[in-house]
Give the backbone structure.
Amino acid sequence: MAGVNKKKRLAGAATKEETKGLRTATLDRNTTETKIALKLTIEGQGRYSVGTGIRFFDHMLELFTRHGAFNLELQCKGDLDVDQHHTVEDVGIALGEAFDKALVDKKGILRAGYFVMPMDETLAVAAVDLSGRVACVVKTKVKTRLVGDLQSELVEDFFEGFARGARANVHLKTLYGRSNHHKIEALFKAFARALRVACSRDKQLGEMLPSTKGLL
Ligand SMILES: [Mn+2]
């Protein structure tokens, strides 16, 4: 029931935001492997309603939303009876596509951002460039097969999917740490905060495109 109330509240807030001209995107992405419904607001208040069927992945998407100060509604029904691969990768692609769509022509944004995020004994770094080109490098240092209920190797597939969907360069690295939970969580937090900077409006550039190429 709490989820329903949260969803109602979020839907109401998003409508109000749209009328204020804030950057939002709604998309449905359906394949034989996954069905995804997603609503993103870049200038959010960290509100989320997320369900992918993988609890640890939900936890990561929720803290991504809060640390990025976005609003995110995301539901995914994937073929988890096969394994988690399609669900995690397709959520990454859809989320990336939502950012690309919400940012429209990318005029007047900072475009690139980075963040160094500590989480207790763990330190992670993220660098993002919304360059229009796809590249992704992820070094998690996680050695266990599972973190919570998430297949840990899929963290890389999520960010690769995001880079493809958003047409971005995404570089993430856990510098050190002990807890595998912290290593992945610190990456998602660092990523959210780097992306938040990259999406931010650049007062100095104004409506100028942050590229000399003329297109992003
Ligand atoms: Mn946690």
In short: The radius of gyration is 17 Å.
